[in-house]
Design goal:
Layout lengths: L10 H21 L1 H13 L14 H23 L6 H20 L14 H4 L2 H5 L4 H5 L7 H16 L14 H25 L4 H27 L6 H22 L16 H21 L6 H26 L12 E2 L2 E2 H9 L45 H21 L11 H9 L9 H22 L10 H25 L7 H7 L4 H6 L4 H30 L2
Length: 571
């Protein structure tokens, strides 16, 4: 009973650990940098195998990452041998933190500013301000690519590690804990803003200063508020969940405000297309969508749930899906033809079709009200706040038997809206689209300089022109505004009408879990989807919708037939 607890370290042992960890080990690592660490980093990164008269210098951040990793491993090994009975928990946490942070620096290898680095640097890297702020290493800068936000990932990893190890504990330790909000805000600055910094520089690193600055500021602000809402939504009890709802409402109000702030980037010179590579709108929606999806995952991870938590989680999930769909169709259009008249397809299928099918998985995170509601802990002696107001989307009948209905419904809604846009709106003057062969030719060859281009560049443009011409011609024949006659758009309308009845019965059967009848009706309407698959070649979204209804409808008919057969065999 009089023995000292194992968590305490004797004074002599503490002095020995400090001398070893803060004096001897750093001196040894510093002395080994030019003769051991730098050659080791060159061998592991592959720079030494490239050859050449001038060997590229290793980034200082990468060398520091290897040093921090070795320091953490050495300290952990020493502590386990020197203190076999336990103790030195703070030293062990610091060693583990240094080890993990060293790994983060090795992976991201962000470039340090000019006044930190010593030695010669290439002129391209010296004139590149974004490479000085952050990059994946000097080699990326030398190849013409700017920073990719390595420091953002390092900051986010540091915030997550501090929250896990204890210094930034996001849980309220006691009723008198007044620093929980400060820790939450500091974690949001490090994690949320770090991730937003990484995404923004990854997407807009080649843009001018003004678009990059305003978009980064807007994205970091939205990431900060979203991270605060996610932390509070995950950690607060049900009786106090109204605080998380209020932060989520602030985030919703701030979304259009900071969106208008990021829209000022459009007034800069030589700015990229809003939805193109480096576009401010696609970057802003990408960050907001990631924040909303993170909030949804935090809500789903709660142990105590209610209608308010599920409704807010579902609303956030639907918003993340909308952002992703807007980015997809804003970038690739309705047929994979982007603003630069480049056609993007995956295995011959247009990118919007494949992307819509893939992004429907997001809605799997939606929760229904059929699962049991668990009650959270209620602390004694604290005033009970009123229940959280309803702010969200609830699905009372959603269960495990019909969870595929929402993804199927999302695919159907997107394809129907895209088909209606292609038939009724495309080419009416609201947006600039190619309506004939001359428009496509001028768009691709408008910046042609015969002096600077070689035969390979001209051949590439010829291939792009051929693909864009075929896609544009098919789309033009599907719209009332661009078609030469009404027959083509009329066939598109007939194909869409032929798809809707089977789509309605398929969604109805999926929502009811396949318990009701209707096999005869479904068998009658499913073959009608063959008409748009064969005839409507100029509308890829309509063809994809009809093909999907045809496959799913046949599977449902076979399932109903098998169920009826088993029911008749029962005695």
């Amino acid at each position: 009973a009089n023995a000292k607890p194992t968590s305490q370290v004797p004074t002599s042992a503490s002095r020995t650990i400090m001398i070893y960890g803060l004096l001897i080990l750093p001196l040894v690592l510093a002395a080994s940098v030019p003769i051991v660490l730098q050659p080791l980093v060159g061998i592991l990164s592959g720079r030494a195998a490239r050859g050449g008269y001038y060997s590229p210098s290793t980034p200082a951040s990468e060398v520091f990452g290897f040093g921090a990793t070795l320091w953490g491993l050495s300290m952990l090994s020493m502590l386990n041998h020197y203190l076999p009975d336990g103790g030195g928990e703070n030293w062990k946490k610091a060693s583990a933190l240094a080890f993990l942070m060293g790994l983060g620096l090795i992976i991201s290898a962000p470039t340090l500013p000019d006044w930190v680095l010593r030695g010669k640097k290439s002129s391209r890297q010296a004139l590149n301000p974004y490479a000085a702020m952050s990059s994946l290493g000097a080699s990326i800068s030398n190849t013409g690519r700017s920073g990719a936000g390595g420091w953002g990932l390092v900051t986010a990893a540091l915030g997550a590690l501090l929250a896990i190890t204890g210094p930034l504990d996001l849980r309220e330790k006691s009723a008198s804990d007044k620093l929980v909000l400060a820790r939450t805000m500091l974690f949001s600055l490090m994690f949320g803003c770090g991730v937003a910094w990484f995404i923004t520089l990854q997407c807009m690193s080649e843009e001018a200063f003004l678009p990059l600055f305003v978009t980064t500021a807007a994205c970091m602000a939205m990431a900060f508020f979203g991270t605060v809402a996610g932390v509070l939504g995950y950690s607060l009890e049900l009786e106090e969940f109204q605080d998380a709802v209020q932060i989520a409402q602030v985030w919703a109000v701030a979304f259009p405000i900071f969106g208008l702030t990021a829209a000022t980037a459009q007034f800069a010179r030589n700015v990229a297309h809003p939805f193109g590579v480096g576009g401010w709108l696609s970057t802003y929606l990408l960050v907001c969508g990631c924040v909303a999806m993170g909030f949804t995952l935090a809500m789903r991870s709660r142990l105590a749930k209610s209608a308010a938590t599920r409704g807010l989680s579902n609303l956030s999930c639907v918003f993340a899906w909308i952002c992703s769909i807007v980015i997809l169709f804003g970038r690739y259009g309705v047929a994979g033809l982007d603003a630069n008249y480049s056609v993007t397809a995956i295995l011959g299928i247009p990118a919007p079709v494949v992307g819509t099918l893939a992004l429907s998985v997001i809605l799997v995170a939606v929760e229904g009200e059929t699962s049991g509601t668990q009650r959270g802990r209620q602390r004694v002696g604290r005033s009970t706040k009123p229940a959280a107001t309803s702010f969200g989307i609830t699905f009372k009948d959603l269960s495990l038997s019909n969870w595929l209905t929402l993804p199927m419904l999302s695919i159907a809604v997107v394809f129907v809206v895209a088909s209606l846009y292609t038939i009724l709106i495309r080419g009416c003057g609201l947006s600039q689209v190619a309506t004939n062969h001359g428009h496509v030719f001028d768009a691709i060859y408008s910046n042609r300089d015969p002096v600077d281009e070689d035969l390979a560049a001209l051949a590439e443009k010829n291939m792009i022109h051929s693909q864009a011409l075929v896609t544009s011609a098919r789309l033009a024949s599907s719209s009332f505004w661009t078609a030469k006659g009404p027959l083509g758009p009329a066939l598109q309308v007939a194909g869409l009408v032929a798809t809707l009845p089977s789509l309605y019965f398929i969604l109805s059967q999926m929502w009811k879990g396949g318990e009701s009848g209707g096999r005869t009706t479904l068998t009658l309407f499913v073959p009608m989807n063959l008409f748009p698959v064969i005839v409507c070649k100029g509308n890829p979204c309509l063809r994809a919708l009809s093909a999907l209804c045809l496959v799913v409808g046949l599977l449902q008919v076979m399932n109903m037939q098998s169920r009826d057969h088993r029911s008749k065999m029962r005695i």
